[in-house]
Every structure is written in structure tokens, then in C-alpha cells.
Amino acid sequence: MKNIRMMLLIFAAAALSGCDNNNQKTAAPEFVFSYAENQAAGFPTVQGAYKFASLVNERTGGRIEIQVYPNAELGEEQSVIAQMQFGGVDFSRVSLSSLSEFVPKYNVLQLPFLYKDAAHMWRILDGRIGESFLAAADGSGLAALSWYDAGARSFYTCDRPIRRLEDMNGMKIRVQESALMSSMIKSLGGVPAPMPYEKVYSALQTGAIDGAENNFPSFESTRHYEVVKYFTVDEHTRVPEVQLITSFTWEKLSLTDREIIKACAVESARYERDLWRERETVSEEAVRSRGCEIIRMPDEERTRFMEAVLPMYKEFCSEYTDIIDEIRGS
Ligand code: GCU
């Protein structure tokens, strides 16, 4: 008797496990997709990814589940892009510096000193030019969905501060693995050290490099301020970031699902932009309070940096002078 009661209990539990609180059967998702991120969980871009995943899940009634992997768990950015071209990862958010190595036209949007300020960059990305650059990924095995914010990048150094152009002489500066970024350092008189984001902390700590460059939130989140004394706000680049989906996944989705995914990507990007603005101020304050000296570069000196890199416009983007002129004139 006891055994029969036990068996009935086990059957009841098994039957209930397929039901949610409303006694409805919970269907398994039709698709489970991966989303690669190289930032830490609390970072604005990762928060944007979580938002994106939850919007998609909600709007497809649970048919599409997106699992976000932060902290470069699926690999460094360049490796993620390469995996995506073969369908190994479904979604990601990457810096345009990494993507430009696969789709060189993106170099245009990351040229140093291209935008006057954040508002100028967003006018471009939110307008016709931004839309046409999203389409530029077509044919590369990737589809670009939306623009994420990554603010402005500036130099930071361990032992010697950068105040003037001459201070760049011989400085070994880490850059992203992008030919354009290496060329920028050479044009400024420094020695480029391209390496993945994940390797920068130890390179700074061991003295393998003299400095690096990034935005305040990344500088804070990676704790580079622990091994760096000076942050020079020169804002030499604004490198937008882009949400990508591999064409393998894009092509197996219905038109309705594609529309949902595109709309959720754009909505998550707006959410990320708001978080970004707040985080920039918080991060700057945080690194200052931890003893990092923040140097604001005067405009006259910034102009000298700008003049030094201008020949790169022709070197990297000679086919796109019309678009560049249009951006600069907007
Ligand atoms: C930013 C960007 C990252 C990128 C990093 C880098 O932090 O958000 O995606 O990898 O710059 O300098 O490599």
C-alpha cells in the first residue's frame, strides 16, 4: 500500500513539472540562441543584451530564448566574429574596431576626430548614413541590427602623463587589433601594441606597455586604474558598437521573427544609451576618487593631435571621401 501511494505521488509530481502556476503546459522554446559579450555583467552593453533577450522572449511568447554570455566566455571579440561567420555564435555586441578588420568600410565610422561630439555621432548613426552602414555588413556572413554607445576613447598611462603631442614619442600604447588603430598611434609618434581587451591589465601591470586607451566605463570596469596613474581626456575617437546576428540564424528566421528581433535590438540600444550616459559620469568619479589623475587636454593641443592623424583619412578611407565630407559637414 505504502509503495502504491509513493508511486502515485511520483506520477503526480512528474505531471505537475510540465505545468506552470496557471496549470498551462510550458512549451520548450523553439530556438535557443547564444549572445556573446566581452564586458562584465553590470556593464551597460551587457545590461542592454539582457534587455534585448527579455524583450525577444516576451514578444515571441517564449518561442525564442537568447542566452547571454558576458566576460568573453565565448571568446575575444575577433574570435567571436570569426565564429559567427560560420554560425558558431548567434548574436554579439562588438566594437567597430574589431568588426572593421572583417568589413573595412566600417573604418569610416571610427576615424579619429571624425565627430564633433556625442550628439554629432548620434545624428549620423540614427540617420540615413547610420542605416546604410548597418547594411554594410550584408555579404560578410553577419547582419548588423543596431548601434550601441561606447562614448569617447582617451589615452591613459602608467608612469608618464600625456599632456602634449611630444609626450607620445616612443610610448608603447595598447590598441585594439585594428590596422587603423595601430596607424593612429604611429601617426602620433607612439609604438602600437595591438592585443585583445582581456590581456591589457597584465600588460600594464608588468610594464609590457606604457599605456592604453579606452572610455571611462571600460577603464573602471577592467580596474586598469589600479595600475595606471594618468588619464588624459583627449577623446581621440568615438568608436560605435554594433549588435550582430550571424546570417545562418538570420536566414532561418521567419520575416515576423526578424522584425521582432530588429525592433527589440533598436529598443535595447536606446536603453543601453541611457545607461551609458549615467555610467560615464559615475566611472569618471570612481577612478578619480581612487587616485587616478585626470588631465583635460586643451583644445589647441587636441588640434595638434587631430592634424597629425589627418593623412590616415586618405590612407584608410580614400573610397569614401564623399561620405566623410558629408559626416564632417553635418
Ligand atoms: C571597449 C569595447 C569593447 C572592446 C574594448 C577594447 O571597451 O566596449 O567591446 O573590446 O573597448 O578596447 O578592446
Description:
- With 330 residues, the chain is an alpha/beta fold.
- It folds into two domains: 29-149 and 239-283, 3-Layer(aba) Sandwich (D-Maltodextrin-Binding Protein, domain 2), CATH 3.40.190; 153-238 and 286-329, D-Maltodextrin-Binding Protein, domain 2 (3-Layer(aba) Sandwich).
- It has helices spanning 2-17, 44-59, 77-85, 96-100, 118-126, 128-135, 179-187, 200-206, 216-221, 247-252, 255-289, 299-309, 311-317, 321-329, and strands at 31-36, 64-69, 91-95, 142-148, 153-157, 172-175, 191-194, 211-214, 230-237, 241-246, 293-296.
- The strands form three sheets. A five-stranded mixed sheet has the order 2-1-3-10-4, with helices on both faces. Strands 8-5-9-11 form a four-stranded mixed sheet.
- Helix 2 (44-59) runs antiparallel to helix 11 (255-289).
- It is globular, with a radius of gyration of 23 Å.
- It binds alpha-D-glucopyranuronic acid.
- Alpha-D-glucopyranuronic acid is lined by residues 38-39, 77, 95, 150, 176, 197, 214, 218, 241.
Number of domains: 2
The CATH topology of the largest domain is: D-Maltodextrin-Binding Protein, domain 2
Helix content percent band: 40-55%
* CATH architecture descriptor of the largest domain: 3-Layer(aba) Sandwich
What's the end-to-end separation, in Å? Answer: 83 Å
Order of helices and strands: HEHEHEHHHEEEHEHEHEEHHEHHH
- DSSP helix count? 14
Question: Which consecutive residue ranges, at least 5 long each, have pLDDT under 50?
Answer: 6-25
Strand percentage: 15-25%
Strand order of the main beta sheet, please? 2-1-3-10-4
- The CATH superfamily name of the largest domain is Bacterial extracellular solute-binding protein, family 7
Q: How many strands appear in the DSSP assignment?
A: 11
- Tell me about the biggest sheet? 5 strands, mixed
Attached small molecules: alpha-D-glucopyranuronic acid
- Gross geometry: globular
What's the level 1 CATH class of the largest domain?
Answer: Alpha Beta
Mean pLDDT: 94
- Report the C-alpha radius of gyration, rounded: 23 Å
Structural class: alpha/beta
